[in-house]
Specification:
It is a single chain. A five-stranded mixed β-sheet has the order 4-11-10-6-7, with no helix packed on it. The protein has a five-stranded mixed β-sheet with strand order 23-28-27-25-26. The chain starts with 6 loop residues before the first helix and ends with a strand. The chain has four domains: 202 residues; 91 residues, Sandwich (Immunoglobulin-like); 99 residues, Sandwich (Immunoglobulin-like), CATH 2.60.40; 101 residues, no CATH class. With 536 residues, the protein is α+β, with helices and mostly antiparallel strands.
Length: 536
């Protein structure tokens, strides 16, 4: 009868079904192995992505510390992104670890992919029949919160909107459309009755997508910042004059550079004081300018730089000021101590010519030389600056013999090559009268013992601003009630000391006729003024 199978046919059919089942079982093991291999590759990639994003954040942290105004707001936005993406990444990692732990509890190692075929784990974890368990709802909440927070951050920057749209799509938990039935819920489609290793791989794929999008977002943010920094709109035009002031009749000379002084930049057009500069003025990294300086006073430079950037005309304003001063015709000559020079000493000078560099200035008068020696706090100091001069009158100068005045002639060379000169007269005075003293002081009273061991000294006093030491050659000692005694050198003679011993208490002692000589100078020194004191 038709449709009735023989025992042989039944056996053949049974063997066929067993054969198909064996093929299916073998194929399933191969698929599970493939998912395991894919998970290994995703895990390695995720480690690299996490490390790369961490390096990015470290670099951004350094920039924010160095240039807070430029990078701090960018770092704060990056920190927000990092916080929400790390939170979701760690949550997904905990689900994966739970899946591996469930297999290991049954004696199955995490790399034995063909046996990670348990389809009940995710169903038991996430579902309660058709409803969600707490873990299932938590999964959806984690995905939704990340997606919404990320999109909100990205929406604040037009350059990041497209990345926000990508996150909105790839981390959507909406129902999934299927070809052969009604839409399925997100967790139902991805994890219900899903083999253990397949679910693990899907979680690793979500982590990989998460890290790639984070890297893409951070890179786009920094790229935008760097593009803004490099934009020509952030450059300043700077006028650099060849000097700070110009003379009437001269041309103003100088150059204009951009704030960043990029040697690859060349302006398309430069307009200064209403006139467009010629092609020869536009050079790489700078623009050469030259025009009449104008009348005396403060003058302005106005204009603009024009560049083309990405098809758009960029205009950078130029504003600067300079001064025009009268052409110099008088030198500045000053004796450093006073407006008089003294015989017997080296007189220091400071000589300059307004508007002329020191190497273009020369000064002339008998005995004048470059460099000078000064004394500060009792210490000798030699100066060799461009304006330092010295007129040495410590020795006789033939051309100045018997004169009471001298002329110092200063000649300067202007930038144009024109020579200008100036002559200034100075009075020549002899050295002032020195003051006598005892051991450099002027005591009102002295004991006999102290005075007999003292030395008679002389000096010009603090009002004389030159360093010229004096040596006492001789003096006269007068003791009240005893007599007068001539002494050679700067110490009391034997007779003078005996007179001191014979003097009564409160006797007046006077030192006069103090003959002195200058140490290191042949100039004649006047007798020092007398000094006196009471003897105890």
């Amino acid at each position: 009868m038709a449709g009735k199978e023989t025992p042989r046919q039944k056996m053949i059919n049974m063997m066929y079904l067993i054969f198909i089942a064996m093929l299916a079982l073998n194929l399933s093991k191969q698929i599970l192995q493939s998912f395991g291999t894919m998970n290994e590759e995703l895990t390695e990639t995720n480690v690299e992505l996490v490390e790369r994003n961490q390096q990015f954040m470290q670099g951004l942290e350094e920039k924010a510390q160095e240039q807070a105004e430029k990078y701090l707001s960018l770092k704060m936005k990056a920190d927000s992104i990092r916080e929400i993406s790390t939170g979701l990444y760690d949550y997904l990692e905990s689900i994966k670890e739970g899946a591996f732990a469930s297999a290991e509890s049954k004696g199955i190692s995490r790399d034995n992919y063909s046996k990670l075929d348990n389809t009940a784990y995710y169903t038991s974890l996430f579902f309660d029949g058709e409803n969600y368990k707490e873990a299932g709802q938590d999964f959806l909440n984690q995905m939704n919160n990340f997606r919404n927070d990320f999109v909100q951050i990205a929406s604040s920057d037009p350059k990041l909107v497209s990345i926000g749209d990508e996150v909105d799509s790839k981390f959507s938990t909406n129902d999934i459309e299927v070809l052969d039935g009604k839409p399925r819920k997100y967790l139902d489609y991805h994890y219900k009755d899903m083999p253990l290793i397949v679910g693990i791989t899907k979680l690793s794929l979500l982590q990989s997508t998460l890290q790639n999008i984070e890297a893409q977002l951070l890179s786009t943010m920094l790229e935008g910042k760097l593009k803004i920094e490099a934009s020509l709109t952030n450059f300043d035009a700077i006028v650099v004059p060849d000097k700070n002031a110009f003379f009437v009749g001269e041309n103003f000379t100088g150059r204009i550079i951009l704030g960043k002084n990029d040697p690859t930049l060349k302006a398309d057009k430069v307009i200064i004081n209403g006139a467009e500069l010629g092609e020869e003025s536009m050079q790489e990294g700078q623009t050469i300018i030259e025009f009449p300086a104008g009348a005396i006073g403060e003058r302005e430079i106005t204009g603009e730089f024009q560049f083309t950037e990405e098809g758009e005309l960029i205009t950078i304003p130029v504003t600067s000021k300079y001064a025009v001063v009268p052409k110099p015709n008088n030198a500045t000559i000053s004796a450093d101590k006073m407006n008089t020079v003294y015989q017997g000493v080296s007189n220091p000078f400071t000589i300059s010519f307004a508007g002329i560099p020191a190497n273009k200035v020369t000064a002339r008068t008998p005995g004048l030389k470059k460099g000078k020696t000064i004394f500060e706090r009792g210490r000798k100091k030699t100066l060799n600056g461009p304006n330092d001069y010295e007129l040495d009158l410590s020795k006789p100068i033939k051309e100045l013999a018997g004169k009471r005045e001298l002329d110092i002639l200063v000649i300067g060379e202007l930038p144009s090559g024109e020579m200008v000169s100036s002559k200034v007269k100075f009075n020549i005075k002899p050295l002032p009268t020195p003051f006598g003293s005892v051991d450099g002081a002027n005591p009102e009273v002295l004991t006999k013992a102290n005075f007999k061991g003292a030395r008679i000294t002389a000096g010009f006093g603090e009002s004389f601003n030159f360093e010229l030491a004096l040596r006492v050659q001789s003096f006269k000692l007068t003791v009240e009630g005893v007599g007068s005694f001539d002494c050679t050198g700067n110490e009391l003679s034997a007779a003078a000391k005996r007179a001191i011993d014979r003097a009564g208490r409160n006797s007046l002692v006077r030192i006069s006729d103090i003959k002195t000589a200058a140490i290191g100078s042949t100039t004649q020194i006047k007798d020092a003024r007398s000094t006196s004191f009471t003897l105890l």
